[in-house]
Amino acid sequence: MNDFKPFKDWLKQVSFLTEEDCALFEPYLKIKKYSAKEHFLNEGKTCQEIGFINRGSFRTYYLSDGKEINTHFVFENDFVVDYDSFLEGKPSKYAIQALEDVEIVTFNLEALQKAYNQSQNWERFGRIMAEQSYKLTTQRVESFLFLDGERRYLDLQENHPLIFDRIPLYHIASYLGMERESLSRLRKKIAGK
Question: Rounded mean pLDDT of the chain?
Answer without folding.
Answer: 92
